[in-house]
Specification:
Chain lengths: 245, 656, 202, 342
Amino acid sequence: MMCMAESNHEDCFTDIKLTEDLFSLRDTTAPNFVFLAKTSWCGSVTSKHWFDPARMRSLVAAQPRWDLRVGRQAFVACVVCVLLAACEREMRPFQDVSAASARTQKPILSPLSPGGERPPEPPLSPFQQNAWGIAEGKRLFDAYNCSGCHAHGGGGMGPPLMDAKWIYGDRPANIFETIVEGRPNGMPSFRNKIPDSQVWQLVAYVQSMSGQVPIDALPSRGDHMRYSTPENARRAEQPVQTGKP
Amino acid sequence: MPTEGPRARPVERLERPLDENAETRLHRELERTWYVPRGVVGWLSVVDHRTVGKRYIATAFGFFIFAGILAALMRIQLAVPDNHFLGPDLYNQIFTTHGTMMMFLFAVPVMEALGVYLVPLMVGARNIAFPRLNAYSYYLFLFGGLMLTTTMLVNSAPDAGWFSYVPLAGPDYTPGKRSDFWAQMITFTEVSALAVAVELVATIFKCRAPGMTLNRLPLFVWSMLVTSFMVIFSMPAVVTSSTFLLLDRLVGTHFYNPAEGGDALLWQHLFWFFGHPEVYIIFVPALGIISSIITTFTQRPVFGYTALAMSVVTTGFLGFAVWVHHMFATGLPQLGLSYFTAASIVISIPTGVQIFCWIASLWRGRPRYPAPMLFVLGFFAIFIVGGLSGVTLASIPFDLQVHDTYYVVAHFHYVLIGGAVFPLIGGIYYWFPKMTGRMTDDALGKLNFWVLFVGFNLTFFPMHILGFQGMPRRIYTYPSEMGWGTLNLLASGGAVLLVVGGVLFVYNVVRSYVAGEVAADNPWNADTLEWGTASPPPVYNFLHIPIVEGRNALWDRSVDAPVVTGIRSDCREVLITEVLDAAPSNKTEFPGPSIWPFLASVVTTAFFIGSIFTPWALPVSVIPIAVTLIGWFWPKSPEKDAPGARKSTELREARA
Amino acid sequence: MSAQRRVLDVSMLPDTGDFGHRGLVWWGTVGFMVIEGSMFVMVLIVYFYLRLKVAEWPPSLPNPDVGVGTVNLLLVLVSLIPNALAKKAAEEQQLSRTRLWIAVLTCIGVANVILRAFEYPALNCRWDDNAYASITWLLLSLHTIHIVTDVVDSAVLVVLVFTSPMTRRRFIDVSENSLYWYFIVAWWVPIYLVVYWAPRWL
Amino acid sequence: MSGGARFAWQRAVWELASLEVASLVIAGCSGNQSMFNPQGPAARSISSLGWTLLAICGVVYLLVMVAFFWALARRRLPSDDAPETTRALTRNVTLASIVTVLVLVVLSVASVVAGRGLTSPSGPGALQVEVTAHQWWWDFQYTDVTPSDYVTSPNELHIPVGVPVVLKVRSRDVIHSFWVPNLHGKRDLIPGQITHTWMQADRPGVYRGQCAEFCGHQHAHMAFVVVAEPMDEFRQWIAHQRQPASEPATDEERHGRDVFLQSTCVTCHTVRGTDAGSHVGPELTHVGSRLTVAAGTLPNTRGHLSGWIANPQAIKPGSRMPPNSLAAADLQAVLTYVRSLR
């Protein structure tokens, strides 16, 4: 909480990092038991690439001698069980929600040139690998009637969100800005209408619609009329930058 | 059989018993034949029912301790109002894992494990039927349990309750993989439980010693038989429902989605159609333990054998007719509900009959009170409370108030701990000499009983009143104004005693295992066959397959008890008898140790866990699974039963 | 101890198990048949339970095409003949006839599996369309799993009966395998009716 | 024999226990959410049924225990193994079983009789309230001929005294269970289903209700209050609730309203009479007049309210209400404004 207060006047990126840091600091705000459990088991799991869909697919595709495969499956299964079961995906970071939204100022984003050069290391949104955050984003996407224009990501009055095309950039920071600032041709600004924590959840969900998050964090079908293939059953799209709306 | 001509019949005759040397030679050869392999690979290849059974029991108690620790954490959290020791997220994971583990990884498996160890000995067989399947089911159980334990440790344990009601446990409201781990844990444990059930039924029906007709079956075996049938008929329901859940979450099917023609109540019907028999699957074996212990420590045949056996069977049937009494508050049609009230009340009649029969046995007998007996007597004091509160729960109006309150928590802990865990611990104290060849410390055992007894009632009796005061289940905290603090504190205090009792039990068992006094073959002068062999039993269980002459096999046997002869001792040949009269029918050879069941279980585990994350796990693991199974069932070099093979039998030994 | 004691000499009993309910294997087979049978019953009950939840059936989806399924049904029924013959031959321990019929049975089984692959498109729905589609796919797949399992089992037996020295034990295995195939055929009839005709009749 | 002695001792222990038990039972029958403190006809018939059941079961238990300890402690006779002893025992066991059956019949009859007292007396005239459960709060809607006259009162159900109120219950997300122990038993709210239950309060008062089916993170904090009041007061309350929100009177209230309308509050909440018209969260038109905030979790005081608005996650971790980081002055103004919404 304290450090967030100071962060109020930082710019967006440092704030994102700060939020990430909070993820690892979270345990200090969490009950002791969690602290023990998490630090002993997942304290080190901060690498953002501990799960790589491509590797999983290649593994599934590979057909070496059966015994090798059995052995490797068993091994991978155990690793998968321990790591994938893990931390980042299964957190319920309620306190980070407070943290991420403890900021009244508008994020100052790098001036965005569609399809242009990209900063060296793309920032990661707080909830990008967090199944709960993504699911919250999905809930808010309906609650705040984003579907009114984007029709569950299929596109209507607004552009589709589940395809490969990114008009204003596919990086979390871009999506964040799109939501907070709005865009020409109809995307309204939600500044001061949606708290930043929830914007980040929406960002994570928007990413998940075209498979830009770990497959095991993807949402599945909702308890409502089926409108399209559930997120976790879609093919992951390779982002394509297009300037034109 | 057309080509076999008239069936060969066993020959009864008089002959001189084997002399010392012949007995020794027979013993040596049987030990060579039924060897338990050594070394790492050997250790994983064991198929012998005593070893597997002991591992099964130990593993189940391991999960019991883990889930007990979780319970202690819950009691700390609830000890005072507005406690911040555990957050809601962690508390939900903990109570879910506690319930799941106790039901699926302790209660059911430990009872079946006891059956795996005892039933073959009690019916006079040399191993359990389908021994390799037995090893396989143990490893599946172990891996499934380890999976759930791991998820608890990495903060991704299921958090939707041990009953995993949809839609809360469904794809929309439990993001991540928590519910999927729960559902797959079900698959693991059910597959293994079903396999063991089939083995037990086959063993009880076809591997009994000659003379052990069905109406001479020990009551423990009766209850294991009923339990196995209940497992066979109830568990498919929960496998089905958890498969639906997994499919809903992984590939977006709509079984539980009302908006697309699915139904949320469907889950409750399927789950409770399993879930209520489940309670009896846990309770019925305990009835068998109680009958055995009472028979032994009153030194009289139990009173009303037929009544006891028949009421166990009746309970088994009625157990399937009452599931909806878990759903009285869902607004189902009134008429149907009243039927389930009737059924739920009727089911208490056979239990009542059993209790009266046992009281009659105690009345008639000459009771002795070592630790095992104390636990059984504690069962009476505790279980009857739970049974009666169960009767009150069957009344719809009353249930509408106490349903999902702490009254129910109190009720089923009285039923399950009083009805199953106390007899079970008693049973462990009772059979410990047979399993390990060492006595437990009886004084410590008695202390253990009193600590557990007091601690239990202190913990769970106040919960009845908390229920009346309106405290709902599964809340991670409660405001102090509700006035629930005192009783919760009392309950948490009792929990401390329960922990102490648990520690005493473990200490007693471990200490007796390493340093207990050596046990005689039949230290309690009990009546069932397992006490008729050495403690611990030799690898082949019985030197000569006995011929049973009465209901209380050891008490009723004549001076020179007749035995079976003519069973080959140079291969794992066993006698197969008829279902009803246990008349010798034929002989068959049991498979020996093999690593394949272990490999198969590893591959299956990889498949189950993989399918939590991707549907591709199925096509990928089909081939390895097929390979391991083929390797498992591939016949070994068949010279044993090829014509002209050397036939060395006890008969030849005798003639030698 | 006294000079003489009563013994029961079982040395002349058949010593490699026995056919049918006298043997032990039969009980294992039947045990798992009961388990899988009750699973089928569960799923069928769920099918009708879900039917009661909606007005039209199938809900806003075309009926499945009966063509392939019916062919498969006929083929399965035909397979009863080699199955019966294989069982009989095995129980009479007739090596050559056993070899012949178990081989024929396996071939038909393979054909069943191949046909099954064409039944899925004939369902005219995707498993995630709605509850009807889900339960239909599940019914079909559940039965497919059983067919595949037993075909693999038969194939292994074929290899055994042609290669390894034939013992009474092998004949028992063949007979149990035929028993299991009866079970699979018996279940395909109701499942076929439910999958293909219930949408038309209900 | 020593066994007997030891059991005399055990019996003493047990009697002590049962004494303590009795006192606890008595303690159990007061308390603000107790089923044995009935305030309406339904709850009363259940409570008297409850006493009957407990009494009968208690007696049965004592009888069985007496027989049990007698069987343990009695002197052993040589005649015990005689066949006529066995015959006598058989007779007694049969007798006991028959008695069991009779007792169970009595229990069933009692239960059925009590059950008849629970059938809903809903006439056409009966007041009907629509109950909608959300994770983790309750919405009570009073429908009317003209939709503009609908009244929604989150987490606070007002009912007139002495008349049955029909509740039309549904869930918006997962399964919840509607339960006011002082008035009636539970009714599950199952998504995809609409069912009816009813309640009636005999005397004015405030009764606490709570969700009884596990529904996720904040199942523990999903409570509500039932305010039973005389018919005319109830009518006044409805009439008042129909009014749009009161206009801000002071400058601070005006400032508070402006902050409210420009901040994130309006994304979820409705204040009738202003631009705030979203139905994601509870309606706030008359929030100032309610007894509790955060679904029966906290009394509705300025302090609690400010804590709740500033950081709800500290009070109900996982609840849907996001934290607000308003500047201190703005927060105070919003508080003043919200509390003025009476």
